[in-house]
Amino acid sequence: MKKTHKLALVATFVTFAAAGCNSFLTGDCVSNSCNQPTSATSDQLFIGVQIGVMGNWETYPMNLLPLWAQQIAGVNRQWASYSNYGSGTDDLTSDGLWIAMYASGGLADIRNGEAQATTAGNMKAVGQFQVIEALTIGFITDLWGDVPFDSAGTPFPTFDTQAAVYAHVEALLDTAITNLSGSGAGNAVDFYFSNDFSKWIATAHTLKARYYMHTAENGDLSYDNTKLNSVLTETAQGISSPDGDFATVHSSTTFEQNLFYEFLVGSRAGDVEPSSLHINLAKQFNDDALLAELYNKNSSGQYLGSPAGVSAGSNVSTFALGPEYRQGIVTNAENLLLDAEAHYRLGQFGPALADLNLERTNYGESGSAVVPGGTNGLLVGILEEKFVRLFLNPEVYFDYLRTCVPNLSLPANHTGGFQYVPARLPYSYTEQTTNTANTPADPIANAVWPKHATGPAGITCAGQVDRPGV
After folding, report:
1. Is the bond into 351 cis (omega within 30 degrees of 0)?
2. CA separation for the pair 172, 183 (Å, rounded)
3. What SS3 class is residue 273?
Protein backbone atom coordinates (compact mmCIF):
# COMPACT_ATOMS: atom_id res chain seq x y z
CA MET A 1 0.00 0.00 0.00
CA LYS A 2 2.84 2.40 0.80
CA LYS A 3 4.34 1.76 -2.63
CA THR A 4 1.03 2.49 -4.38
CA HIS A 5 0.54 5.58 -2.23
CA LYS A 6 3.97 6.97 -3.12
CA LEU A 7 3.72 6.23 -6.83
CA ALA A 8 0.41 8.02 -6.99
CA LEU A 9 1.94 11.10 -5.44
CA VAL A 10 4.84 11.00 -7.87
CA ALA A 11 2.66 10.53 -10.94
CA THR A 12 0.44 13.45 -10.09
CA PHE A 13 2.99 15.84 -8.62
CA VAL A 14 5.18 15.55 -11.73
CA THR A 15 2.21 16.98 -13.64
CA PHE A 16 1.98 20.03 -11.38
CA ALA A 17 5.61 20.63 -10.45
CA ALA A 18 6.20 23.13 -13.26
CA ALA A 19 3.33 25.35 -12.14
CA GLY A 20 3.65 29.08 -12.80
CA CYS A 21 2.87 29.55 -16.49
CA ASN A 22 -0.11 28.89 -18.75
CA SER A 23 1.50 25.60 -19.83
CA PHE A 24 1.25 24.09 -16.35
CA LEU A 25 -1.06 21.33 -17.61
CA THR A 26 1.28 19.75 -20.13
CA GLY A 27 3.04 16.44 -20.16
CA ASP A 28 2.45 12.78 -20.80
CA CYS A 29 0.30 12.15 -17.75
CA VAL A 30 -2.14 14.85 -18.81
CA SER A 31 -2.31 13.76 -22.43
CA ASN A 32 -2.79 10.11 -21.48
CA SER A 33 -5.09 10.66 -18.46
CA CYS A 34 -2.89 8.96 -15.86
CA ASN A 35 -5.62 9.58 -13.28
CA GLN A 36 -8.28 7.91 -15.45
CA PRO A 37 -7.20 4.39 -16.36
CA THR A 38 -9.52 2.37 -18.58
CA SER A 39 -10.44 0.17 -15.61
CA ALA A 40 -10.12 1.53 -12.10
CA THR A 41 -11.49 0.77 -8.70
CA SER A 42 -12.94 3.32 -6.33
CA ASP A 43 -9.73 3.12 -4.27
CA GLN A 44 -7.51 3.85 -7.28
CA LEU A 45 -9.63 6.76 -8.42
CA PHE A 46 -9.75 8.20 -4.90
CA ILE A 47 -5.94 8.44 -4.79
CA GLY A 48 -5.87 10.52 -7.97
CA VAL A 49 -8.79 12.68 -6.85
CA GLN A 50 -7.18 13.51 -3.50
CA ILE A 51 -3.89 14.45 -5.15
CA GLY A 52 -5.80 16.46 -7.75
CA VAL A 53 -7.23 18.60 -4.95
CA MET A 54 -3.76 19.18 -3.53
CA GLY A 55 -2.37 20.06 -6.94
CA ASN A 56 -5.16 22.49 -7.74
CA TRP A 57 -5.24 24.25 -4.38
CA GLU A 58 -1.47 24.79 -4.17
CA THR A 59 -0.53 26.03 -7.59
CA TYR A 60 -1.15 28.40 -10.47
CA PRO A 61 -3.65 29.71 -11.43
CA MET A 62 -5.56 29.19 -8.18
CA ASN A 63 -2.92 31.05 -6.21
CA LEU A 64 -3.70 34.10 -8.32
CA LEU A 65 -6.74 34.51 -6.05
CA PRO A 66 -4.88 35.16 -2.76
CA LEU A 67 -2.41 37.24 -4.81
CA TRP A 68 -5.28 39.44 -6.11
CA ALA A 69 -6.46 39.79 -2.50
CA GLN A 70 -2.88 40.94 -1.66
CA GLN A 71 -2.25 38.10 0.78
CA ILE A 72 1.01 37.46 -1.10
CA ALA A 73 2.90 39.96 -3.25
CA GLY A 74 3.97 39.32 -6.83
CA VAL A 75 7.09 41.42 -7.43
CA ASN A 76 8.95 40.02 -10.44
CA ARG A 77 8.30 38.90 -14.03
CA GLN A 78 4.65 38.14 -14.83
CA TRP A 79 3.84 37.87 -11.13
CA ALA A 80 4.38 41.62 -10.75
CA SER A 81 1.86 42.10 -13.55
CA TYR A 82 -0.57 39.73 -11.83
CA SER A 83 -0.33 41.84 -8.65
CA ASN A 84 -1.14 44.94 -10.70
CA TYR A 85 -4.21 43.25 -12.22
CA GLY A 86 -2.57 43.70 -15.60
CA SER A 87 -2.48 40.06 -16.76
CA GLY A 88 -3.51 36.58 -15.71
CA THR A 89 -7.15 37.41 -16.33
CA ASP A 90 -7.68 35.90 -19.79
CA ASP A 91 -9.42 32.72 -20.91
CA LEU A 92 -6.12 30.90 -21.46
CA THR A 93 -5.21 31.46 -17.82
CA SER A 94 -8.44 29.86 -16.70
CA ASP A 95 -8.27 27.03 -19.23
CA GLY A 96 -6.00 24.69 -17.28
CA LEU A 97 -7.88 25.15 -14.03
CA TRP A 98 -11.26 24.55 -15.69
CA ILE A 99 -9.96 21.33 -17.27
CA ALA A 100 -8.36 20.17 -14.01
CA MET A 101 -11.63 20.71 -12.15
CA TYR A 102 -13.84 18.93 -14.67
CA ALA A 103 -11.67 16.27 -16.35
CA SER A 104 -9.54 13.36 -15.08
CA GLY A 105 -8.36 13.93 -11.53
CA GLY A 106 -11.40 16.19 -11.08
CA LEU A 107 -15.14 15.82 -11.47
CA ALA A 108 -14.91 13.05 -14.09
CA ASP A 109 -12.97 10.76 -11.75
CA ILE A 110 -14.97 11.84 -8.70
CA ARG A 111 -18.26 10.75 -10.27
CA ASN A 112 -16.70 7.58 -11.70
CA GLY A 113 -15.42 6.74 -8.23
CA GLU A 114 -18.84 7.38 -6.70
CA ALA A 115 -20.38 4.97 -9.20
CA GLN A 116 -17.75 2.30 -8.48
CA ALA A 117 -18.20 2.63 -4.71
CA THR A 118 -21.99 2.57 -5.01
CA THR A 119 -21.87 -0.65 -7.04
CA ALA A 120 -19.63 -2.18 -4.34
CA GLY A 121 -22.04 -1.09 -1.62
CA ASN A 122 -19.31 0.98 0.05
CA MET A 123 -21.38 4.02 0.98
CA LYS A 124 -18.73 5.54 3.23
CA ALA A 125 -16.45 5.69 0.19
CA VAL A 126 -19.24 7.34 -1.79
CA GLY A 127 -19.52 9.95 0.96
CA GLN A 128 -15.80 10.70 0.80
CA PHE A 129 -16.04 11.32 -2.94
CA GLN A 130 -19.14 13.46 -2.45
CA VAL A 131 -17.42 15.80 0.01
CA ILE A 132 -14.65 16.38 -2.54
CA GLU A 133 -17.24 16.81 -5.31
CA ALA A 134 -19.00 19.49 -3.24
CA LEU A 135 -15.69 21.24 -2.56
CA THR A 136 -14.83 21.14 -6.26
CA ILE A 137 -18.14 22.24 -7.75
CA GLY A 138 -18.63 24.82 -4.99
CA PHE A 139 -15.32 26.42 -5.91
CA ILE A 140 -16.16 26.26 -9.62
CA THR A 141 -19.43 28.17 -9.18
CA ASP A 142 -17.81 30.62 -6.74
CA LEU A 143 -15.29 31.55 -9.40
CA TRP A 144 -17.29 31.32 -12.62
CA GLY A 145 -20.98 31.66 -11.71
CA ASP A 146 -23.24 29.63 -14.02
CA VAL A 147 -21.42 26.35 -14.71
CA PRO A 148 -22.20 22.78 -15.85
CA PHE A 149 -23.41 20.50 -13.07
CA ASP A 150 -26.14 18.06 -14.10
CA SER A 151 -24.72 17.57 -17.60
CA ALA A 152 -21.02 17.89 -16.67
CA GLY A 153 -19.04 15.18 -18.43
CA THR A 154 -21.24 15.08 -21.54
CA PRO A 155 -19.78 16.25 -24.87
CA PHE A 156 -21.66 19.58 -24.90
CA PRO A 157 -22.81 20.34 -21.36
CA THR A 158 -25.37 22.99 -20.59
CA PHE A 159 -24.77 25.52 -17.82
CA ASP A 160 -26.83 25.44 -14.62
CA THR A 161 -27.57 28.73 -12.92
CA GLN A 162 -25.28 29.61 -10.05
CA ALA A 163 -28.19 29.52 -7.59
CA ALA A 164 -29.10 26.01 -8.76
CA VAL A 165 -25.49 24.86 -8.40
CA TYR A 166 -25.27 26.11 -4.81
CA ALA A 167 -28.52 24.27 -4.04
CA HIS A 168 -27.05 21.12 -5.60
CA VAL A 169 -23.92 21.50 -3.46
CA GLU A 170 -25.88 21.83 -0.20
CA ALA A 171 -28.00 18.77 -1.10
CA LEU A 172 -24.90 16.80 -2.11
CA LEU A 173 -23.30 17.53 1.26
CA ASP A 174 -26.44 16.34 3.05
CA THR A 175 -26.25 13.08 1.11
CA ALA A 176 -22.53 12.79 1.85
CA ILE A 177 -23.15 13.14 5.58
CA THR A 178 -25.75 10.36 5.41
CA ASN A 179 -23.44 8.09 3.40
CA LEU A 180 -20.47 8.71 5.70
CA SER A 181 -22.62 7.39 8.53
CA GLY A 182 -23.64 4.33 6.52
CA SER A 183 -22.16 0.98 5.48
CA GLY A 184 -18.75 0.19 4.05
CA ALA A 185 -15.11 0.69 4.99
CA GLY A 186 -14.33 3.80 2.98
CA ASN A 187 -11.54 4.10 0.45
CA ALA A 188 -8.34 2.26 1.33
CA VAL A 189 -5.95 5.22 0.98
CA ASP A 190 -7.27 8.32 2.74
CA PHE A 191 -4.52 10.94 2.82
CA TYR A 192 -6.62 13.48 4.67
CA PHE A 193 -8.16 11.66 7.64
CA SER A 194 -7.11 7.98 7.47
CA ASN A 195 -10.79 7.03 7.32
CA ASP A 196 -11.81 8.93 10.43
CA PHE A 197 -15.33 9.47 9.12
CA SER A 198 -16.26 11.84 11.94
CA LYS A 199 -13.72 14.27 10.47
CA TRP A 200 -15.15 13.86 6.97
CA ILE A 201 -18.61 14.60 8.38
CA ALA A 202 -17.36 17.69 10.21
CA THR A 203 -15.69 18.92 7.01
CA ALA A 204 -18.99 18.50 5.17
CA HIS A 205 -20.78 20.63 7.78
CA THR A 206 -18.16 23.39 7.55
CA LEU A 207 -18.50 23.36 3.77
CA LYS A 208 -22.27 23.70 4.13
CA ALA A 209 -21.68 26.74 6.37
CA ARG A 210 -19.26 28.20 3.82
CA TYR A 211 -21.78 28.06 0.99
CA TYR A 212 -24.66 29.32 3.11
CA MET A 213 -22.52 32.36 3.91
CA HIS A 214 -21.58 32.80 0.26
CA THR A 215 -25.27 33.03 -0.64
CA ALA A 216 -26.53 34.95 2.42
CA GLU A 217 -26.08 38.44 0.99
CA ASN A 218 -29.13 39.95 -0.70
CA GLY A 219 -29.07 42.14 -3.78
CA ASP A 220 -29.34 45.27 -1.60
CA LEU A 221 -26.25 44.09 0.37
CA SER A 222 -28.32 43.17 3.43
CA TYR A 223 -28.08 39.63 4.82
CA ASP A 224 -30.67 36.85 4.92
CA ASN A 225 -31.19 35.88 8.56
CA THR A 226 -32.44 32.42 7.60
CA LYS A 227 -29.18 31.73 5.79
CA LEU A 228 -27.18 33.13 8.71
CA ASN A 229 -28.96 30.80 11.11
CA SER A 230 -28.20 27.94 8.74
CA VAL A 231 -24.53 28.90 9.00
CA LEU A 232 -24.77 28.57 12.79
CA THR A 233 -26.52 25.20 12.53
CA GLU A 234 -23.70 23.83 10.38
CA THR A 235 -20.75 25.36 12.24
CA ALA A 236 -22.08 23.79 15.46
CA GLN A 237 -21.40 20.42 13.79
CA GLY A 238 -18.35 21.52 11.83
CA ILE A 239 -14.58 21.16 12.34
CA SER A 240 -14.12 21.49 16.10
CA SER A 241 -10.32 21.70 16.42
CA PRO A 242 -7.25 22.19 14.20
CA ASP A 243 -6.51 18.45 14.20
CA GLY A 244 -9.65 18.06 12.11
CA ASP A 245 -8.49 20.50 9.42
CA PHE A 246 -8.93 19.30 5.84
CA ALA A 247 -5.42 20.20 4.67
CA THR A 248 -2.90 19.03 2.09
CA VAL A 249 -0.41 16.32 3.07
CA HIS A 250 3.27 16.26 2.08
CA SER A 251 6.69 14.87 2.83
CA SER A 252 10.24 16.08 2.18
CA THR A 253 10.61 13.47 -0.59
CA THR A 254 10.95 14.79 -4.13
CA PHE A 255 7.54 14.98 -5.89
CA GLU A 256 5.73 14.78 -2.54
CA GLN A 257 6.54 18.33 -1.46
CA ASN A 258 4.19 21.27 -1.07
CA LEU A 259 3.83 22.84 -4.51
CA PHE A 260 3.93 26.46 -3.35
CA TYR A 261 7.21 25.64 -1.58
CA GLU A 262 8.53 24.16 -4.84
CA PHE A 263 7.44 27.32 -6.64
CA LEU A 264 9.34 29.49 -4.13
CA VAL A 265 12.60 27.53 -4.37
CA GLY A 266 12.41 26.50 -8.04
CA SER A 267 12.77 28.35 -11.33
CA ARG A 268 10.30 31.04 -10.19
CA ALA A 269 12.25 31.97 -7.05
CA GLY A 270 12.00 35.70 -6.40
CA ASP A 271 8.71 36.19 -8.24
CA VAL A 272 6.61 36.26 -5.05
CA GLU A 273 7.41 37.76 -1.65
CA PRO A 274 5.55 38.09 1.66
CA SER A 275 2.83 40.72 1.54
CA SER A 276 3.09 43.85 3.65
CA LEU A 277 -0.70 43.83 4.09
CA HIS A 278 -0.72 40.27 5.40
CA ILE A 279 2.22 40.80 7.73
CA ASN A 280 0.92 44.12 9.06
CA LEU A 281 -2.52 42.69 9.84
CA ALA A 282 -0.93 39.68 11.55
CA LYS A 283 1.09 42.11 13.69
CA GLN A 284 -2.05 44.14 14.43
CA PHE A 285 -3.79 41.01 15.73
CA ASN A 286 -0.69 39.83 17.63
CA ASP A 287 -0.75 36.62 15.58
CA ASP A 288 2.82 35.83 16.60
CA ALA A 289 2.60 32.06 16.17
CA LEU A 290 1.34 32.47 12.62
CA LEU A 291 4.04 34.99 11.73
CA ALA A 292 6.72 32.58 12.96
CA GLU A 293 5.15 29.70 11.04
CA LEU A 294 4.98 31.55 7.72
CA TYR A 295 7.90 34.00 7.68
CA ASN A 296 11.56 34.45 8.56
CA LYS A 297 12.55 37.73 10.18
CA ASN A 298 14.79 40.03 8.18
CA SER A 299 18.34 41.03 9.12
CA SER A 300 16.93 43.66 11.48
CA GLY A 301 14.93 41.07 13.38
CA GLN A 302 11.62 42.29 11.97
CA TYR A 303 8.87 40.91 9.79
CA LEU A 304 8.70 43.06 6.65
CA GLY A 305 6.55 42.45 3.56
CA SER A 306 6.35 43.96 0.10
CA PRO A 307 3.47 45.95 -1.35
CA ALA A 308 1.67 44.49 -4.36
CA GLY A 309 3.81 44.62 -7.47
CA VAL A 310 7.03 46.05 -5.98
CA SER A 311 9.71 44.41 -3.84
CA ALA A 312 10.55 46.04 -0.52
CA GLY A 313 14.19 45.28 -1.32
CA SER A 314 16.94 43.21 0.26
CA ASN A 315 15.55 43.61 3.78
CA VAL A 316 12.20 41.97 3.01
CA SER A 317 11.33 38.87 5.00
CA THR A 318 11.35 35.48 3.33
CA PHE A 319 8.82 32.66 3.52
CA ALA A 320 9.51 30.07 6.20
CA LEU A 321 7.33 27.40 4.58
CA GLY A 322 9.00 24.04 4.24
CA PRO A 323 8.37 21.14 1.84
CA GLU A 324 5.95 19.51 4.31
CA TYR A 325 3.79 22.61 4.82
CA ARG A 326 0.12 21.63 5.09
CA GLN A 327 -2.10 24.15 3.34
CA GLY A 328 -5.54 24.43 4.90
CA ILE A 329 -8.49 23.94 2.56
CA VAL A 330 -11.39 23.64 5.04
CA THR A 331 -10.37 24.37 8.63
CA ASN A 332 -11.41 24.92 12.22
CA ALA A 333 -10.35 28.57 11.81
CA GLU A 334 -12.81 29.01 8.96
CA ASN A 335 -15.52 27.23 10.93
CA LEU A 336 -15.12 29.46 13.99
CA LEU A 337 -14.84 32.68 11.99
CA LEU A 338 -17.92 31.82 9.91
CA ASP A 339 -19.71 31.27 13.21
CA ALA A 340 -18.40 34.60 14.49
CA GLU A 341 -19.50 36.48 11.37
CA ALA A 342 -22.98 34.94 11.44
CA HIS A 343 -23.40 35.81 15.13
CA TYR A 344 -22.28 39.39 14.49
CA ARG A 345 -24.63 39.90 11.55
CA LEU A 346 -27.49 38.57 13.72
CA GLY A 347 -26.63 41.12 16.41
CA GLN A 348 -25.09 38.55 18.78
CA PHE A 349 -21.85 40.38 19.53
CA GLY A 350 -20.77 38.46 22.65
CA PRO A 351 -20.72 35.04 20.94
CA ALA A 352 -19.00 36.64 17.92
CA LEU A 353 -16.13 37.93 20.05
CA ALA A 354 -15.91 34.61 21.92
CA ASP A 355 -15.52 32.77 18.60
CA LEU A 356 -12.77 35.14 17.50
CA ASN A 357 -10.82 34.61 20.72
CA LEU A 358 -11.31 30.83 20.60
CA GLU A 359 -9.98 30.71 17.05
CA ARG A 360 -6.83 32.52 18.17
CA THR A 361 -6.38 30.18 21.15
CA ASN A 362 -6.88 27.07 19.02
CA TYR A 363 -4.05 28.13 16.71
CA GLY A 364 -1.55 28.94 19.45
CA GLU A 365 -2.04 32.69 19.90
CA SER A 366 -2.04 34.24 23.38
CA GLY A 367 -4.18 37.07 24.70
CA SER A 368 -7.48 38.42 23.50
CA ALA A 369 -8.00 39.67 19.97
CA VAL A 370 -7.24 43.30 19.22
CA VAL A 371 -10.53 44.51 17.77
CA PRO A 372 -10.42 47.50 15.40
CA GLY A 373 -12.40 50.56 16.45
CA GLY A 374 -14.96 52.46 14.39
CA THR A 375 -18.05 51.33 12.55
CA ASN A 376 -18.52 47.53 12.62
CA GLY A 377 -15.08 47.17 14.19
CA LEU A 378 -15.70 43.65 15.48
CA LEU A 379 -16.98 42.47 12.08
CA VAL A 380 -13.94 43.98 10.37
CA GLY A 381 -11.71 42.30 12.94
CA ILE A 382 -13.32 38.89 12.37
CA LEU A 383 -12.89 39.17 8.62
CA GLU A 384 -9.33 40.51 8.86
CA GLU A 385 -8.36 37.67 11.20
CA LYS A 386 -9.82 35.25 8.65
CA PHE A 387 -7.73 36.91 5.91
CA VAL A 388 -4.62 36.50 8.06
CA ARG A 389 -5.27 32.92 9.15
CA LEU A 390 -6.48 31.28 5.90
CA PHE A 391 -3.13 31.53 4.18
CA LEU A 392 -3.17 30.79 0.43
CA ASN A 393 -6.82 29.76 0.66
CA PRO A 394 -9.05 31.14 -2.15
CA GLU A 395 -11.67 31.92 0.51
CA VAL A 396 -9.78 35.13 1.30
CA TYR A 397 -10.45 36.30 -2.26
CA PHE A 398 -14.14 35.35 -2.14
CA ASP A 399 -14.46 37.02 1.27
CA TYR A 400 -13.01 40.20 -0.22
CA LEU A 401 -15.50 40.12 -3.08
CA ARG A 402 -18.47 39.71 -0.75
CA THR A 403 -17.33 42.08 2.07
CA CYS A 404 -14.57 44.43 0.85
CA VAL A 405 -12.38 43.28 3.76
CA PRO A 406 -9.52 43.96 3.75
CA ASN A 407 -10.32 47.23 2.00
CA LEU A 408 -7.63 46.92 -0.67
CA SER A 409 -6.05 49.87 -2.42
CA LEU A 410 -4.95 49.51 -6.02
CA PRO A 411 -1.17 49.02 -6.18
CA ALA A 412 0.78 52.28 -6.14
CA ASN A 413 2.43 51.59 -9.51
CA HIS A 414 -0.78 50.38 -11.15
CA THR A 415 -0.71 51.60 -14.76
CA GLY A 416 -2.75 49.21 -16.87
CA GLY A 417 -5.12 46.29 -16.88
CA PHE A 418 -8.13 46.41 -14.61
CA GLN A 419 -8.77 49.53 -12.56
CA TYR A 420 -10.33 47.31 -9.90
CA VAL A 421 -9.74 43.95 -8.26
CA PRO A 422 -10.77 41.29 -10.82
CA ALA A 423 -14.08 39.73 -9.79
CA ARG A 424 -13.78 36.39 -11.60
CA LEU A 425 -11.83 34.42 -14.19
CA PRO A 426 -13.27 34.19 -17.71
CA TYR A 427 -14.73 30.91 -18.92
CA SER A 428 -12.01 28.68 -20.29
CA TYR A 429 -10.80 29.03 -23.83
CA THR A 430 -11.42 25.33 -24.53
CA GLU A 431 -15.02 25.49 -23.27
CA GLN A 432 -15.74 28.62 -25.29
CA THR A 433 -14.35 27.15 -28.50
CA THR A 434 -15.70 23.60 -28.22
CA ASN A 435 -19.02 24.29 -26.48
CA THR A 436 -19.76 27.70 -27.98
CA ALA A 437 -23.53 27.30 -28.18
CA ASN A 438 -23.87 26.62 -24.44
CA THR A 439 -21.15 28.78 -22.86
CA PRO A 440 -22.61 32.07 -21.55
CA ALA A 441 -21.07 35.45 -22.28
CA ASP A 442 -18.58 36.44 -19.59
CA PRO A 443 -19.96 38.98 -17.11
CA ILE A 444 -17.70 41.29 -15.09
CA ALA A 445 -18.66 39.36 -11.96
CA ASN A 446 -20.97 36.49 -11.15
CA ALA A 447 -24.26 37.06 -9.36
CA VAL A 448 -23.18 36.13 -5.85
CA TRP A 449 -20.54 38.88 -5.65
CA PRO A 450 -22.33 42.25 -6.09
CA LYS A 451 -20.18 45.39 -6.17
CA HIS A 452 -19.64 47.23 -2.89
CA ALA A 453 -19.39 51.02 -2.88
CA THR A 454 -18.14 50.96 0.72
CA GLY A 455 -16.79 48.37 3.13
CA PRO A 456 -18.37 47.56 6.53
CA ALA A 457 -16.28 50.30 8.18
CA GLY A 458 -18.08 52.87 5.99
CA ILE A 459 -14.98 53.64 3.92
CA THR A 460 -15.02 53.70 0.10
CA CYS A 461 -14.25 50.24 -1.30
CA ALA A 462 -11.30 51.30 -3.42
CA GLY A 463 -10.84 47.98 -5.22
CA GLN A 464 -14.49 47.58 -6.23
CA VAL A 465 -16.02 51.04 -6.58
CA ASP A 466 -14.81 51.53 -10.17
CA ARG A 467 -15.77 48.03 -11.27
CA PRO A 468 -18.27 48.19 -14.15
CA GLY A 469 -21.79 46.86 -13.70
CA VAL A 470 -23.40 46.00 -10.38
Report:
1. no
2. 18
3. strand
Contact at 8 Å (CB) between 381 and 371? Answer: yes
Q: Is 200 exposed, middle or buried (0-12, 13-18, 19+ CB in 10 A)?
A: buried
Q: pLDDT tens for residues 295-338? A: 999 999 999 999 999 999 999 999 999 999 999 999 999 999 99
* Torsion angle of the four alpha carbons 197, 199, 203, 209, in this order, in degrees rounded to the nearest 10: 110
Contacts of 353 (CB under 8 A, 6+ apart): 340, 369, 371, 378
- Give the global pTM: 0.92
Domains of the chain: 2-16+41-252+327-434 (1.25.40.390)
Beta-bridge partner residues of 273? 73
Ramachandran bin of 77, using left for φ above 0, alpha for ψ from -120 to 50, beta for the remaining angles: left
Alpha carbons 120 and 427: distance in angstroms, whole number: 36
| Bond preceding residue 406 cis, omega within 30 of 0 | yes
Which residue type occupies 99?
I
Under a CB-based contact definition with an 8 Å cutoff, are residues 373 and 425 in contact? no
